[in-house]
Amino acid sequence: MPRFALIGKKLGHSWSKKYFDEKFNSSEWKGYEYINLETDDISTIKHLVQVNRLDGFNVTIPYKRSILPYLDDLSQEAFDIQAVNVVKVMNDGKLKGHNGDAYGFEQSLLPLLKSHHQQALILGSGGASKAVQYILRKLNISFHIVSRSGVGMNYSDLNETIIREHRLIINTTPLGMFPDVNFSPDLPYSALRKEHLLYDLIYNPTETEFLKKAKAQGAVIKNGEEMLILQAERSFELWDFGR
């Protein structure tokens, strides 16, 4: 029977296995299996696939970009984003990368967008950030990247004027994720207004410090749970039917 996995460095926080275990316990998918595979070396991915007899897998932190050299093919979307979180094991054993994060983010964001959400700040520059950037370009929303890595703006550059001009702020970093729930990106939160929409890709906890501080200022908030569910379902479509 088909076997799938989540591959990352540390997976104690992961929700994916529980989600797919519940899905695969239904009569329609009885016998399908989903496992967690932790690795410190993504270059061994083909060996992991063979040893564990995988038909497909998800990729999470920190390998969404570093896995690219070890894949045989990419979907057009994954190529454009240059990040992968879904891999299909083809019939000939080759690995084809896809990006389901972009789909999940877009579908969960669209119902919340208003006409004044024309400028965005994206916190972080990793693989998840690449998917967010791709969707904002698609939606014609201009953005600036804010990071500690030297990409784009630095957090020290942010002031009240910049925050007020950018009414969509998306956190793609793990800052505030369980178990380190008391942390949040360094922003002048007092500049937030009810016109702001703050989206956190984190889903555990359901309300991060980032979102709590935004909510206290009257901003609209959204966590990453719906995005996660949507990308999980997209993953399964790609594994079971994608070629």
Structural account:
This protein has 243 residues and is of the alpha/beta class. It folds into 2 domains: 3-99, Leucine Dehydrogenase, chain A, domain 1 (Rossmann fold); 102-226, Rossmann fold (3-Layer(aba) Sandwich). The protein has helices at residues 16-24, 45-52, 76-81, 101-109, 127-138, 160-165, 209-216, 225-241; strands spanning 3-8, 33-38, 56-59, 73-74, 86-89, 95-98, 119-123, 142-146, 168-171, 197-200, 220-222. The strands form 2 sheets. The chain has a 6-stranded mixed sheet, sandwiched between helices. It has a 5-stranded parallel sheet with strand order 8-7-9-10-11, with helices on both faces. Helix 4 crosses helix 5 (127-138) and helix 4 crosses helix 8 (225-241). The radius of gyration is 18 Å and the shape is elongated. The protein starts with a strand and ends with a helix.
